[in-house]
Please model this.
Amino acid sequence: MFFAKTLALVSMAAAPLAFALPAEDNSQADYWAQFCDDTACSQGCGESVRVSNPGCLGESGRKSIRFHGSPDNDYSLVVSPTGNCPCQNTCASVPSGSTCWDISAYSGDQSFRFISGNCGSNNC
Model:
C-alpha cells in the first residue's frame, strides 16, 4: 500500500513537468547538402549539413554537392578563396529542383557557406 501511494505521488509530481518541456523546433525545413569528391555526387560524399545553417564549411577540393530533402526558401552558396569564410569571392544561387550540383569550378576555393536568398556583392 505504501508503495502504491508513493508511486501515485511521484507520478502526480512529475506530470506537470511533461507539459512544461519545450516542444521540438520544426520551424526549419529538412533540406540538406553533402559535399562530394566527384562531379556526379557519388564519391566521397561527406556528412549532411542543413542548408539553412549559415555556418562556414571547410570543403576545399570538393567538386559537387548532393541535396536531399525539401527546400523552404531560395538559397545561395557563398564561396571564399581561403578558410573560415572571411569574404565572398563568388556567389551562386543553389539550383532549384536539383539533387546534384557540379561545383568543380570552385574546387580551388577553400570555404563555403549557404545563405538564404540572393547573393550580395563580392568583397574579397
